[in-house]
Amino acid sequence: MMVPVALMLLGALTAFVAPRLLSRVDWPDREPVVALWAWQCVVAAVLLCCALSMTLSAAAAWQAVRGHLFAPAPRPVVEAYALGAAGGPWAAATAVALALAGAWSGAMLVREVVRARARGRQRRAELLVRAPLLPGEEPGGGPLVVLEGERPDAWWLSGATPRLVITTAALRRLKGRQLDAVVAHEQGHAQARHDWLLHCSAALAAGFPQVPVFAAFRDEMHRLVELAADDMASRRFGRLTTALALVELNEGRGVFGPGPAAQAHVTQRVHRLLAPPDRLTAAHRLRLTATAALVPVVPVLVAFVPGLRALG
To answer: pTM score, two decimals?
Structure first.
């Protein structure tokens, strides 16, 4: 049971240390896309540790699993994992507990997707009420929906036929390139499929509320996807234009004063866009991305070290 225990400890250490390290550095605000990748790698490493630990624990507990898993492996490899002597109630209990946790994660993801689709259907039904089809117009025919509304707002409605919804108040307040920047921001969400990141992070946080790394993952996904979409808009229409568009959309909501964290994020986004750009160099960004990509490889190396030693 040494390798499964080592994997579980490695997963726990990653879940404890990585969020604290990421919260102490400032480069995620400058490079949100790299930060999104780094967070995904951290969570993938934690989940991979659990999956490998479950697999090896099941192999130690049950001959059938061991036979299928190590069928092509030489006998010294099987002996290096000490699977014959490591079986027992603890191995079986660990495998069953981790399998149930995996099934629960899948159920939470399915629930989140089902709820998101239900919300999408409800919002589409509301759109039909607030913006009825004109004579001869087909349902879902156009990518843009304009709603009568006193509050300036714009959002991307994902689904089989994605649509950009914008209110008449937003059209009145946003001028020229500011409106283009808002459209580019929403298109950035759609092109990067940020909705799936939000679904997965919400499912893990809801399924395991006592695990801090999943709650931090959910919160950071909500923050970083907005920064990434802001950057996509600012690259096309300028940082000042994008910041002014944010101000115009949110000025009447009281978000530029004392308030909850969700409102403070809007202020931080505007300040970030107005601050002088302090970009990482391309080489530094590449090193960060490569380092983050190696995080999920560590549990694989831990799992296969005994087999590699036996073959050597």
So the answer is: 0.81
